Automatic annotation (TrEMBL):
Binding sites annotated in the UniProt record for K(+): N59, D121, S157
Cofactor binding comment, as recorded: Binds 1 potassium ion per subunit.
Presence of keyword Isomerase: yes
Binding site for (6S)-NADPHX: N58, N59, G60, G61, D62, G125, V126, G127, L128, S129, R130, P131, D154
Functional summary from the UniProt entry: Catalyzes the epimerization of the S- and R-forms of NAD(P)HX, a damaged form of NAD(P)H that is a result of enzymatic or heat-dependent hydration. This is a prerequisite for the S-specific NAD(P)H-hydrate dehydratase to allow the repair of both epimers of NAD(P)HX.
Stated family: Belongs to the NnrE/AIBP family.
Keywords assigned by UniProt, alphabetized: Isomerase, Metal-binding, NAD, NADP, Nucleotide-binding, Potassium
Name of this chain's protein: NAD(P)H-hydrate epimerase
Cofactor: K(+)
Ranges for domain YjeF N-terminal: 10-211
Record field: catalytic activity: (6R)-NADPHX = (6S)-NADPHX; (6R)-NADHX = (6S)-NADHX
UniProt-listed Enzyme Commission number(s): 5.1.99.6
Coiled-coil portions: none
Length: 215
């Protein structure tokens, strides 16, 4: 799908798929996680020590689900969680519950991020709405300072998916698995540089033009 969409389009296609078509948000999240996981394996990253850096929005939920997919295959994975888990979205709270069932370790030690062989960037996606600061910025700077490979989910965190601009600081990803369609910000020089190799994942979300033609 070579079409590129805006944040508003991504959010409206998401809502249309969930509310009008009736595919549950957790199904979309699972498909997003499976797509990211499959790209992780296909792109042959060093999965000796994987750390998922996640916040508490649905981008974080995607990452926590990827951590579970790695854990059930006995891959060494830990989650570095940013933000207050009690403020997580419903889907991300559910992913945290599942992660706890599988005893996935949570770390608060930034050295675990720095010493990872591969980092999954699940901090922010299309919900980024202001410059990244504080502990979020500290984590982004640590990710960018490591020799680890970095795989971003949906949008490299800190990149405005509409303008391609860096909001404060932004993850410099080796690759990005973006959901449904490319985001227009990824077509700019700065956006392209931070996205790295781009994989577009078909997770069952389509624009009205595509959906109407299927009827
Ligand atoms: N559309 C799809 O195809 C699917 C998208 N999925 C994933 O969901 C995210 C979007 O999730 P959302 O909860 O809307 O937002 P984020 O997770 O990107 O952001 C989290 C949250 O963080 C707050 N926030 C924004 N900017 C800042 C900041 N600078 N500092 C601190 N906090 C900030 C704000 O409250 C946001 O809500 C999408 O990218 C996909 O990864 C679905 O999982 C699958 C289908
Ligand atoms: K991200």
């Amino acid at each position: 799908m070579s079409k590129a969409i805006t944040i508003a389009q991504a959010q409206s296609y998401d809502a249309h798929t969930i509310n009008e078509i009736g595919i549950p948000a957790m199904v979309l999240m699972e498909r997003a996680a499976l797509a990211t996981f499959n790209n992780l394996l296909n792109d042959d990253y060093d999965l000796t020590r994987v750390v998922v850096v996640a916040a508490t929005g649905n981008n974080g939920g995607d990452g926590i689900a990827v951590a579970r997919l790695l854990k059930v295959r006995n891959i060494d994975v830990a989650i570095y969680l940013l933000g207050d888990p009690t403020k997580a979205t419903d889907q991300t709270a559910q992913q945290l519950k599942i992660a706890n069932y599988y005893h996935i370790p949570f770390t608060t030690d930034l050295n675990d991020v720095i010493n990872a062989t591969t980092i999954i960037d699940a901090i922010f996606g299309v919900g980024l709405s202001r410059p990244i600061t504080g502990k979020f910025a500290e984590a982004v700077n640590a990710i960018n300072a490591t020799d680890a490979s970095t795989v971003a989910i949906d949008v490299p965190s800190g990149i405005n998916a509409d303008s391609g601009e860096t909001l404060g600081v932004a993850v410099m990803a080796d690759s990005t698995t973006t959901m449904a369609y490319k985001k227009v910000g990824m077509l700019t020089a700065n956006g392209k540089q931070h996205t790295g190799i781009l994989h577009v994942a078909d997770i069952g979300i389509y624009g009205a033009d595509h959906v109407e033609t299927i009827k």
